[in-house]
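Progress note, project year one: complex with zinc ion.
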Amino acid sequence: MAIRQIVKLGDEVLRKKSFAVTDFGERTHELLGDMYDTLKKANGAGLAAVQVGVLRRIFLVIKGESIEDGVYEMLNPEIIKESGEQYGTEGCLSVPGKWGEVKRPYKVTVKYQDRYGKPKTLKAEGFLAKAICHEYDHLNGVVYVDKADNLRAEEK
Ligand SMILES: [Zn+2]
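Model obtained:
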């Protein structure tokens, strides 16, 4: 496993649409392992493959407060249901030191495949729903700064 370099805002790859995952074998598992290590090192809540320069529809989101609680690995995710609303602060590992407020659904239902290609469905709410929406946007070339109000540098 290895830590990969995180692509920063301004790199055009972040604006591209990621392609469907068709390989559920060793190569993808290696990418998932590297993404995990990279997310852990960066102390983030989620990471999409495009953020390490790989245009595949894959992201990780932490299950709880930290990566120690485990991560969901979502391959070819589709948000099939949204309800409610939340408005909260977001940041992004590709936009270091900045924060802004974004409106998101409070609950989402997401269909995805696990690393072996097995179909799964997850109902998420609150922070997890927000993280899933943020990462899902990355797969379509959208970065939260496109939607954020009051985008600002970190207060020291
Ligand atoms: Zn992000």
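The chain is about 20% helix and 35% strand.
The domain at 12-153 is CATH 3.90.45.10 (Peptide Deformylase).
No further modelling is planned for this target in the current period.
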